[in-house]
Amino acid sequence: MRTRLTLALAMLAAAGVAAQDSGAGFSVPITLGGGAMYTDRLQAEGDASPYTAGFRAVLYPTLRLDDHWFGYAAIQLREAPYFYYDAFDSSHDFYTEVIQAFVGYSARRGKNALVIKAGRLASAVGAFPMRYDDTDNPLLDQPLSYTTALPVRGDQVPWGVYSLAGSLYGANAYAAAANAPGLTPVTLYSIPGIEADVSLGGRVDGRVQITSGSPANPQSITQFAHASQWAAGAGYTIRQGFRVGMSAFRGPYLGDNAAASLPMGTGIRSFPSTGIGVDAQWASGRWSLNGEWQRFQFDSPGFAQQPSLQSGYAEAKSIVTPRIYLAARAGWLATGSVADSSGATATEFAPALASLEAGGGYWLGRNELIKASYEWLHIEGSPGARANVLGAQFVYRFNSLGWSFR
Questions:
Q1: Please, which residues have CB within 8 angstroms of residue 146's CB and are 6 or more apart in sequence?
Q2: What are phi and psi of 174, to 5 degrees?
Q3: Which domain does 90 fall in, by range?
Q4: Which residues on neighbouring strands pair with residue 32, listed in sequence order?
């Protein structure tokens, strides 16, 4: 994706702003966020207060060694609930999460550029994983395919339709969707691996990534030998401000602890997950649009029709004044029908979801942003507004921490 390459090259410039003579430097931009929410999601597991608050800090240590070699990381410190998807659990917990951490080599010739990275990488699948900074996301939530936990798991193998879709047969679809213990189709956090990004002529961009584990179930680098898989993407800028792209991946998603449950003579590589997606970005004047469509499949033994799902979203943003913007995002996620070898079938294996989030932001200054939104989330089988959220965030960026050296 072009934004990936632009980001990597910009890291070199960021680290060297104060080090143009030395050609080397170190910087630590920081984004701080404080948020508050009102939602009945907090009562999914008990009689909790519908009010809550959380905190987030993202550190971006960047090291520039010369015109080619650099290091970069994005490390998140979070008190949950901070994100809307945190709010199904009312307990206040602290997390430290690596979004990216890698060493890189960049080269440029004319309008062509190459960046090679190795370490912990953001997924090459989809367009949203690179928008992890609170100032890059005009709203407070994330698209459904990046936040929804499914009944599909990496540590257990479903033996049939009922074991996979059993939550649908209960009376509380809301609780089933809120507490699903399984995998999210695409992680917003890092996967160990290597990646090559290219940009050709300023219009064509591409990326190839080899990782340890699936975008739905990252593994440690020690599992690379048998959990490795590929992901790739490409895009074309039709004209300034208008780009279309696609991405795909294939590889094992089950962990080692599930191998003992697989049929004799098979292993975790015998049952891969696959995914494909298309995305588009358009901007002109005060308006900008973003959208994605994705399909995922998780192969499992004993299924004649494998578990799959489709998801998508469309996002619009309008700059009303230099300080004020409005934004909205509509999304959906629906699982496909499944059938097992015993003849059991189900039209879906998890409740269908539909969301609409609307809000806006106000820039107090160059680095201070207040944003708020209201999200309507419809969970199939759960009427009412229990999953809706009203939230607000204050975001502050520090860009001045940096050192140069020879």
A1: 126, 128, 129, 184, 185, 186, 187, 188
A2: -60, -50
A3: 2-404
A4: 57, 396
What DSSP line would sit under 281-307, residue for residue? EEEETTEEEEEEEEEEEE--TTEEE--
Residue the block writes with tokens 């990216």: 100
Residue type, 43: Q
Whole-angstrom Cα distance, residue 370 to residue 57? Answer: 16
Number of domains composing the chain = 1
Contacting residues for 188 by C-beta, under 8 A, at least 6 apart: 99, 122, 128, 129, 132, 142, 146, 147
pLDDT at 174: 46
Distance CA 209, CA 195 (A): 4
Paired residues of 237 in beta bridges: 243
Q: What pLDDT shows up at residue 406?
A: 62
What's the number of CA atoms in the CB half-sphere (13 Å) around residue 345?
Answer: 6
CB atoms within 10 A of CB 201: 10
Cis geometry, peptide bond prior to residue 158 (ω within 30 degrees of 0) = no
Backbone angles phi, psi at 124, to 5 degrees: -80, -5
Q: Which amino acid is at 171?
A: A
Determine contact, residues 5/115, Cβ cutoff 8 Å: yes
Task: Give me the amino acid identity at 39.
Answer: T
In this structure, the dihedral spanned by the alpha carbons of residues 110, 4, 247 and 311, taken in order and rounded to 10 degrees, is -150
Output the pLDDT for position 41.
87
User: Alpha-carbon dihedral of residues 256, 259, 260, 264, nearest 10 degrees?
Assistant: -150
SS3 assignment, position 85: helix
pTM: 0.89
Which regions of the chain are under pLDDT 70?
Answer: 1-23, 45-46, 166-181, 405-406
Model confidence over 7-57: pLDDT tens digits? 544 444 444 443 444 468 899 999 999 999 999 988 876 678 999 999 999
Strand-pair partners of 235: 205, 245
Contact present, 303 and 338 (Cβ < 8 Å) = yes
C-alpha 401/C-alpha 27 separation (Å) is 6
CATH number for 35: 2.40.160.10
Q: Cα(first)–Cα(last) distance of the chain, in Å?
A: 33
For 266-292, what is each residue's pLDDT tens digit? 999 999 999 999 999 999 999 999 999
Task: State the Cα–Cα distance between residues 220 and 224, nearest whole angstrom.
Answer: 7
CA distances from 155 to 18, 257, 259 (A): 48, 6, 9
